Amino acid sequence: MRIRTFQGLVPAQQHAPEVAAVPYDVVNREEAAALATGKPFSLLHVDRAEIDLDPEIDPYSAPVYAKARENFDRLQKDGILVREAKPCMYLYRQVIAGHSQTGLVTVCHTEDYEKDIIKKHEKTRQDKEDDRTNLVDKLNANTGPIFLTYRQRPGITALIESFMKDEKPINDFTAPDGVRHQVWRLSLGLCVSLTGLFESQVPCAYVADGHHRAASAFRVSKMRREANPNHTGQENYNWFLSVLFPGNELKILPYNRAVKDLNCTDREEFLKKVSAVFTLKPTTLKSPTQPGQCCMYLKGQWYELTWQADKNASPIDQLDVSILQDRLLKPILGIDDPRTSKRIDFIGGIRGTAELEKLVNGKEHTVAFSMYPTTVDQLMAISDAGQIMPPKSTWFEPKLRSGLFINTLEG
Question: What InterPro entries does this protein's entry cite (predicted)?
Answer without folding.
Answer: UCP033563
